[in-house]
DNA sequence: AATCCGGGGGG
DNA sequence: CCCCCAGGATT
């Protein structure tokens, strides 16, 4: 138990004071865990406070509209987390009488809760003996034990999951889980950790073998795709033409503008753009360039051009997803950051 | 097994 | 510029 004891001892001295560590309410822990998926603590903290303020209980959460949830989520990214939370809150109210489950086997069935989150909520709220395996745990174990199996391969996931559960300190799973994650976040951090002050530096495989910078191993990611969005901006009086994005692409159920996607911004492709604009909005339609923005996502780089749309004919029957909204209404609708920023810069 | 899903901070 | 972040769902 040397490994576990040292981690816990380190944790009790160095842990940050974070609000979700003061509760064992599964609902509150769920809020924090979903928000913190692929998200740094400092980035997620204001969102955690905002959600808890707006939805003190899971019943409050379930009663809200999906748009309200996504509006609160705006700017945090990975919006399926918000949609899944909305669904899960309603399942908890309808099937669990509004009492948030605390057992792994119940939690894992809920949308947006996978192995990591089920282990986190169950151990933190009910003390269930489930080891968390997140990015921090991968890194600490890979370095300490010198495991070079890629952490994003199926074998790697199985191997690390098995080891993590063997190491779990079953006398206090919650404490141990918090300890190893905090240790990974603060001491055994991704880049240039200060191993001279690490309590595990004597036994650490990576430090002994000068491999701290090489572990953990990760399989190469797919190359980012380039996409070219031509947004058509149209305002009449205090209203603006918006589109609700649908399933099958990024930013599902968020709002942007009518958009014509092309394969590039070359002269030839711009002729295609103009042709498409006129066939959709009438032959007299004119577009004038406003601004360009590059927007980078995990798997795509989106080149965004904004155009002012003029002299067009608008057919609601052909363009069902489009809608006129006032700027006041728009402020209540969830939007991707690139749209939000454009609106704030131009209106 | 591979790909998709955001946005921001830090080296 | 590149990497990573209290991952999960879909194909």
From TrEMBL:
- Is rRNA-binding set as a keyword in this record? no
> Which principal EC class is assigned to this enzyme?
hydrolase
Cofactor mode of binding and number, as noted? Binds 1 [4Fe-4S] cluster.
Which cofactors are reported in the record for this sequence?
[4Fe-4S] cluster
* Record's keyword terms, sorted: 4Fe-4S, DNA damage, DNA repair, Glycosidase, Hydrolase, Iron, Iron-sulfur, Metal-binding
Instruction: Give the reaction(s) catalysed.
Output: Hydrolyzes free adenine bases from 7,8-dihydro-8-oxoguanine:adenine mismatched double-stranded DNA, leaving an apurinic site
Task: Cite the EC number.
Answer: 3.2.2.31
Return the Pfam families for the record.
Answer: HHH (PF00633), HhH-GPD (PF00730), NUDIX_4 (PF14815)
Task: Please list the residue ranges annotated as the HhH-GPD domain.
Answer: 35-186
Q: Which family does it belong to?
A: Belongs to the Nth/MutY family.
Function per UniProt:
Adenine glycosylase active on G-A mispairs. MutY also corrects error-prone DNA synthesis past GO lesions which are due to the oxidatively damaged form of guanine: 7,8-dihydro-8-oxoguanine (8-oxo-dGTP).
Name-wise, this protein is Adenine DNA glycosylase
Organism field: Pedobacter rhodius
Q: Which gene encodes it?
A: mutY
């Amino acid at each position: 138990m040397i490994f576990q004891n040292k981690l816990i001892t380190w944790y009790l001295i160095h842990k940050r004071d974070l609000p979700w560590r003061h509760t064992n309410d599964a609902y509150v822990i769920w809020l924090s865990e979903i928000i913190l998926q692929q998200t740094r603590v400092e980035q997620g903290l204001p969102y955690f406070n905002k959600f808890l303020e707006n939805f003190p209980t899971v019943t409050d959460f379930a009663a809200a509209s999906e748009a309200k949830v996504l509006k609160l989520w705006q700017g945090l990214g990975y919006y399926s987390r918000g949609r899944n939370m909305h669904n899960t809150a309603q399942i908890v109210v309808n099937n669990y009488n509004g009492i948030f489950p605390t057992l792994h086997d119940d939690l894992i069935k809920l949308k947006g809760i996978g192995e990591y989150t089920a282990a986190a909520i169950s151990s933190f709220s009910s003390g269930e003996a489930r080891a968390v395996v997140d990015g921090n745990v991968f890194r600490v174990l890979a370095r300490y034990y010198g495991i070079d199996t890629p952490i994003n391969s199926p074998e790697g996931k199985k191997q690390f999951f098995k080891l993590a559960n063997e190491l779990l300190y079953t006398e206090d799973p919650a404490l141990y889980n918090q300890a190893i994650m905090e240790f990974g976040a603060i001491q055994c951090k991704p880049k240039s950790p200060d191993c001279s002050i690490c309590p595990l530096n004597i036994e650490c495989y990576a430090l002994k073998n000068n491999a701290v910078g090489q572990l953990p191993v990760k399989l190469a990611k797919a190359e980012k795709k380039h996409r070219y969005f031509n947004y058509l901006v149209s305002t009449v009086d205090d209203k603006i033409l918006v589109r609700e994005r649908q399933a099958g692409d990024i930013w599902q159920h968020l709002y942007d503008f009518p958009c014509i996607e092309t394969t590039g911004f070359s002269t030839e492709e711009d002729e295609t753009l103009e042709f498409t604009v006129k066939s959709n909005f009438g032959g007299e339609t004119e577009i004038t360039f406003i601004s360009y923005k590059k927007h980078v996502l995990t798997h795509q780089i989106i080149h965004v051009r904004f155009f002012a749309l003029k002299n067009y004919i608008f057919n609601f029957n052909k363009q069902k997803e489009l809608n006129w909204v006032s700027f006041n209404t728009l402020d209540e609708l969830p939007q991707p950051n690139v749209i939000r920023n454009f609106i704030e810069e131009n209106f």
